[in-house]
Structures are given as structure tokens and as C-alpha cells.
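Reviewer 2 asked us to include a model.

Predict the structure of this chain.
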Amino acid sequence: MKTRFSVILIFLVLFVHTAVAQRLAQMDSVIADEIAKKHLPGAVVLVGHKGRIVWRKAYGDRAVEPTREPMTVDTIFDLASLTKVVATTTSIMILVERGKLRLSDPLSLHIPELKGEGRDRITIEHLLTHVSGYAPDFDLRERWNGYDEAIKHLIAEPLRNTPGSRFTYSDIGFIALGEVVARVSGMPLDRFAQKNIFGPLKMVNTGFRPAVSLVSRIAPTEKRRAQMSYLGDTGANAGAEGEVWLRGQVHDPTSYRMNGVAGHAGLFSTADDLAIYCQMILNHGSFGGVRILSPLTVAEMTRPRIISNGGGTRGLGWDMNTTYSTNRGDLFPLGSFGHTGFTGTSIWIDPAS
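Predicted model (C-alpha cells):
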């Protein structure tokens, strides 16, 4: 079993009728079977309906090595690419609301070092819908480290396609968006998101670079060779071969090189905190008396956009109907939306039901 798939977090919003407990309990055997097959050691599943949590349950184990730990509903997960929608897209749309940028803005308006070879044709909307022309990721064979070095690579990165012409799911595009947030707002993405999203919503277990005090609740992802980390350690819990479990340090290698704060990956959270965020989206931008986004902004974020000749659709940041939306299953209708993360995390929201 690949340990990078060792955690899974599923958030579903679906129709629930009078037999809710009996119907939802059908997932118990399915998840138990996946654990038995060692496809995953454990899971946390949370289901919300009409503003209420109707199912919250932990399954299996949070960790299996070096010692076994049972999964708990308050387990903190490395969200991987859920960062793209929960932190980065939301931050960008807050800045759009405030008149600080527009979806039609050229990326070069905010990062003027991006010049030549068609880069001046990339717009903010191109980046949000993965049609910017950028490759999926930087060449990880190149040796570099640090956030500033990542931005230097972004500025030098060539385009694979003409902006707007082809859908290519791209971490590079969201790294660029994270830098746009920093330049336009005057604060790095992690601070902007904390101040404008997670803090107001009281998502108390959500953020980049989680505190060392939270590590015992964080699900580990995989082993890597011990190295100096942004938490300041040199490989605590390293085994005989000098390997260390990534636990509280971002799994994504590019975000890791960027010291854990990036527009494409790096966010950590719990099922309960994600439920707050998702309910805010379902409430057209507000939750608990706090407004994060306007109804018009949520409508624009979740409006389908055709991004491929085959009819693939995405919203702004959100996935709807592409090869990446297998977590949608067979029954959720068009108009629902969600996202996945490489570590096994998943959100799906169906406003209609």
C-alpha cells in the first residue's frame, strides 16, 4: 500500500430522509472492506444536510507505524489540493469582491516579471480553471528550496499551451494565484486566509504549518529521508534507515520546498472545520452570522464553465465534471461540485439536495 494514500477525508452533502441512520450506515461495510484490503488504514466521514451534521464517524486507524493509533473524528489531515479551493480560490474571490483585482486581469498585471512567450495572455480566470497553459508542476529534478526560489521558477517557467486553449490541471497555476494574493493584499496567503476566512468562521483547526502541539492529532502521510524541515527539526521519529514520517509537514514536495505555504497545497484541517466551510458555501457565503463572500461571488465561483472539447466543466477552483471528479460518483447531478486532494481528501457539495 502506498502510504501517501493512507488517509482519506470525505465530505458529502446529499439528500437525507427519515431512514437517514440506516441508509448512511451502509457505508460502514464499504469502508471496512477498504480497510481490510489495506487500501487505507482509516477514514473520517462527515455528512451535512440542511445546515446540520447528520453523520460523523471515524473508522480504522489514523496511523499504523511506528505504533497503531485509532482514528478520531478530530483528526487533522493534510488537505493537499483542497488548499486550492478552500484557501486560494476563496482568497482570490474576496479580493475580487473588494475591487483589488478582476477575473479578466492579466497575471502579468500583478506579477509584472512574467513577460514574453504568451505569458501576458494568462488571466486570473485562466489560472482558476486550469487553462493557463502551465505544466502540472515544476520539474522536481531541479534542486532548489524556499518560497522566493519557487517564484523565480514561476517567472522562468515556459508555457506548454496557448492560454485558454487546453485544460491541464496545474499546481503551477495555483502557486501563481497564491503569489497574486500576497502581492495584492500585502500579506502572504496563510495570513490572509487566516484573517479573512478561517478566523472569522472559527475554523480553529485549519491553517498552514500547524503548530507542533497539534502533531499528535495529525494523520501521517508517508516516510521520507530525514531532512531539515520548516518545523525546525532534523528528523524526529526517524527510523534506523534515517527515514521520518511526515506528520504535520506538508506531503506535497513542491509546497514542502516552499516551506509549507503555497497556493496549491499546504493546508491542514479537520472534517468539522471543512463542514463549516462547505456550509458557508451552501449558505451563499455566510455562516454563524459571519459573511465571507457575497451570494453573487458564490454563484460565480460555482457556475459551470466548459474547459475542454469533450464537455468537461469546472467552476472557479471547483471541479464539476472532469476526469478528476471521480469522487462525484454516479448519482450526484450536474450543478454539484467538489475537489479532491492527493493525500486522499475529498469534498463534494450538492446545493440542489
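The mean pLDDT is 91. The first helix runs from residue 20 to 24. We have added this to the supplementary material.
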